[in-house]
UniProtKB/TrEMBL annotation:
It is found in: Cell membrane. InterPro entries: Cyt_b561_bac/Ni-Hgenase, Cytochrome_b561_oxidase, Di-haem_cyt_TM. It is a multi-pass membrane protein. GO terms for biological process: respiratory electron transport chain. Residues 11-179 form the Cytochrome b561 bacterial/Ni-hydrogenase domain. The lineage of its organism: Bacteria, Bacillati, Actinomycetota, Actinomycetes, Mycobacteriales. Keywords: Cell membrane, Electron transport, Heme, Iron, Membrane, Metal-binding, Transmembrane, Transmembrane helix, Transport. This is Cytochrome b561. The chain crosses the membrane at residues 18-38, 44-64, 94-118, 146-169. It comes from Rhodococcus jostii. Pfam families: Ni_hydr_CYTB.
Length: 201
């Protein structure tokens, strides 16, 4: 009996996948914290104490990730994706990278213009990017809010597209970026079961 060959879609490099999921968790946490900061005054200072260093960490990590994506090979997209969908996916990816760079820098500049310290941990501070200026602070605060909404909608659209490919088209798009443990579990589940033969008594 010959074993059934299961097609395995090409995957991103391990470093790309690790950075992808680490950033996904950090961005979701940052969006939730940012929403709580503008909708409630409870624990505002605690939320801000987490929001600032997390934003700096996202900025540093996205720079590493961009460099990693330049070095590592990008696997071919599924055949179900039409050329226009591939261009849209590439454009949304570039938009996400741009927002993840610009948004933390805008927040850093906003705090600097407001005269607030950019505290990472206790006595560890970042230098200000701008001199204190109330009018610049107000402009950057509004920009930071609008960019936050744009990041939320872009991130949500990205997740909806992945879910559509995973649950409707079932074309293996998510498996290109899935952690190794998920792919091992899927291969185990899809492994054909050999028929049991009864030995004569």
């Amino acid at each position: 009996m010959t074993a059934v060959q299961v097609d395995r879609p090409p995957r991103f490099a391990a470093t790309v996948r690790l950075l992808h999921w680490a950033m996904a968790v950090m961005v979701i946490a940052q969006l939730v914290i940012g929403a709580l900061m503008v909708t409630t005054l409870d624990h505002y200072h605690l939320l801000r104490a987490v929001h600032v260093p997390l934003g700096v960490a996202i900025l540093a990590l996205v720079v590493v990730r961009i460099g990693n994506r330049v070095v590592c090979r990008t696997p071919a997209p599924p055949a179900t994706m039409r050329p226009v969908e591939r261009r849209a996916a590439t454009a949304s990816e570039y938009l996400l990278y741009g927002l993840l760079v610009i948004q933390p820098l805008t927040g850093w500049a906003m705090l600097s213009a407001g005269g607030y310290p950019i505290t990472l941990f206790r006595h560890l501070h970042l230098p200000p990017l701008l001199a204190p200026d109330p009018s610049v602070y107000a402009l950057l605060r509004q920009s930071h809010t609008m960019l936050g909404y744009l990041l939320f909608f872009t991130f949500t659209a990205h997740m909806c597209a992945v879910l559509f490919h995973t649950m409707v088209l079932r074309d293996g798009l998510l498996r290109r970026m899935a952690p190794s443990c998920m792919n091992r579990a899927r291969r185990t589940r899809d492994r054909p079961v050999r028929p049991r033969t009864l030995s004569p008594r």
